[in-house]
């Protein structure tokens, strides 16, 4: 009986060892297959010289690198495409008007980013169209371009990390690593250096406003300048008085009496400044604010603080830092 029992135990151990080996082999095979699949995708991209990325609407885009006929329907993104080492075939009119880009030989494909002209775009026979994710008109246009087999992708830049991500995609497409280092990596290093300088400082209270031709609104984390102020340790009063997001209340501003008041203009500068003078600065109570009396009521350059600063993002951080902390690095 002992002999029979020993034989049974040996047989059972043998079966279990085979099952263990089978499990390990299955796991190894599964891992190997996943690795091979990834390597296969990368090899296919390398062989076909394509690049796959996820755009701002979550769509997976696979396209040829180094597109030669590129249409960009946003002045900011047009500037970024050039910073990434790319060339433009078509842009909306805000590219030369707001970004002062040299548009010699480049076709204007719309009066504004909100009014792109499909016929003009298609006539250029583009191999890539860059769209703005937060522009409603571009969503319908994207569907039409898809139906026509024209590659298009949405981009969105609200904060600095968005800019870095977009520049990574664009420089991958242009295969210009030097452009990424110069206009993204180095910019990030500069911005982080300034943020680090402000880390241990006691930040001031601030109000940041955007003056338009018919309204004045405070801005917080919903605007890149508000994010810059927050990154530099500032206490934006809009976090306590969120009604300022809908329109400036002098009573609320007087109650908070911030250390600094910053503002930029949107749209027609002359009309926006006239509206600001008439509706705020003409009020006697406004002149009694600490920021106004102490010379801390500051207009910020539109090119960096209304529009996205792009390659000047580090400079924008430094600009604010120097004002609020009174130091120059």
Write a brief structural summary.
The protein is of the alpha/beta class. The protein contains 14 helices and twelve strands.
Architecture overview:
This protein is an alpha/beta fold and 329 residues long. Among the domains are: 104 residues, Rossmann fold (3-Layer(aba) Sandwich), CATH 3.40.50; 126 residues, Nitrogenase molybdenum iron protein domain (Rossmann fold, 3-Layer(aba) Sandwich). Helix content is 52%, strand content 14%. The protein is built from 14 helices and twelve strands. The strands form three sheets. Strands 5-4-3-6-7 form a five-stranded parallel sheet, with helices on both faces. Strands 8, 9, 10, 11 and 12 form a five-stranded mixed sheet that branches. It has a two-stranded antiparallel ribbon with strand order 1-2. Helix 5 links the parallel strand 6 and strand 7. Helix 6 packs antiparallel against helix 7 and helix 7 packs parallel to helix 14. The N terminus is likely disordered.
Features:
329 residues, alpha/beta, Rossmann fold, five-stranded parallel β-sheet, five-stranded mixed β-sheet, 52% helix, disordered N terminus
Give the arrangement of secondary structure elements.
Layout: H1 2-48, E1 50-54, E2 60-64, E3 70-72, H2 75-83, E4 90-91, H3 94-99, E5 107-108, H4 118-123, E6 128-132, H5 136-147, E7 152-155, H6 160-174, H7 177-198, E8 205-211, E9 216-218, H8 224-231, E10 235-236, H9 250-256, E11 260-265, H10 269-281, H11 284-287, H12 290-293, E12 297-299, H13 302-305, H14 313-325
Parallel strand pairs: 3-4, 3-6, 4-5, 6-7, 8-10, 8-11, 11-12
Antiparallel strand pairs: 1-2, 8-9
